[in-house]
Amino acid sequence: MTLTRLQGWSLQADALTNTDRNKMTNDPPPTTITTTTNIISIQECHTEIVSGHSRSLDLASPREWLEYWEDHYHCSGCYTVLRCDYNLLAGRKFPKTIAAAAAAGSAAATNWRIWGRNFHLQRLRESYLCLLQEDIHIVNQEHSLEEWKQSANKLIDTLLSQAEAELSNRYLESEHQDLPPDSIIVFMVTLLWQPAQQIKMGDVGSIKQQQQQQQQQQSPVETLAKGHICSSLSVQSTNQYPKPMRAALALPSGKSSKLGGWPNRIDFHPTAKLSSWCRQRRPLEEALKLPNIDEVILLKESQGESSEKVETFEMLEGLTTNLFFVFPGRILRTAPGKTVLQGYARHLVLKHAEKCGLIVDASKAVTLEDLKECQEVFATSSIRIIVPVKELLFPVYQKDQDDTPVELQSLWSSSSCSEPESRPYWQRLLDSIMVS
Q1: Could you give the domains of the chain?
Q2: In this predicted model, what pLDDT tens digit does every residue of 143-199 receive, in sequence order?
Q3: 412 within 8 A of 391, measured Cβ to Cβ
Q4: How far apart are CA 433 and CA 128, in angstroms?
């Protein structure tokens, strides 16, 4: 039996501290769940809001939700994205558990697989410290961050409990009877930590000025903690393999061999997940994410040992993915951790590689010339885990024109590689990860 795909669903929430609680007016948020240390304020995501750049934003989209809050506070924040799998049959088996968990504002552990919760919270903390140290010597910040880590956990549990309640309203018990035991619905949970600016939209001021004032007062930076959850609500199987994708390389136009014109992450805390990247990467998407292109690959110039001339380009990561390459001798190569965002799915691949017969080499990034020997390419992300890449393409520009490519041509294709003797390594890795 196949369930009809339902209309998608989304929700946002704020963690309000005791200080915030005292500031609240007589008009409370639409829905609040009170805990010992904070209040979780829950709101529906408006379908469309005009941003500070006069562009309409759909707050049901996690990416546009992050852009909205950056516009609202005039500063970047740090975020992380968790995949959360809801087991439909477990939900039917434990209805009382769901009701009790929703009433308490927490997720029922028997119904959910939350991928890498501790990993994501630790990276969120590290990213936030990277952001703050640009402008301020952190005073008493460790204690404050620990409090916000607790708030982040409460945000996760509250959002998942609301998701359970939504599913119980949408699905009838009879619809579950013919589902296979591995039937799940995937939810995407986004957590955002952002420095709070004490200025209104349009006022002159900066986050740096506020941080300098707080440094002089020997007080920690005030932090806003927000959460967002969304799902297509489509039922899927954990045994389904993803469709292969095509990716474009962010090569410069013929007017320049330099990459300076394209946005990149490597020049500013590449290991930190900053919300500003959601906006900064738009020029790359508009120029290179053409029809049937699923990802854009960020590059780094590679000079020769005795020359400053750019000889080739190194492939670092995708706009929202990490990259892996399989070479003869069962060698699995990926860019060094200090040059890319170290995603959770990347962490899982490195953890399971040896078990799947691979030898990891993360000492240096793969160059365009290295692709001649490459046997497999795949990308990883927190939501899709592993996605095979079937083709890498490079842009062809019209002579003496701007950086808008005329077409994309193939540089590497899986179809040109010899057929593997057994299953491809990306499948072995995915199978190993899903059952772990």
Answers
A1: 9-237 (no CATH), 245-434 (3.20.10.10)
A2: 567 788 888 999 999 999 999 888 887 765 545 557 787 889 999 999 999 887 533
A3: yes
A4: 28
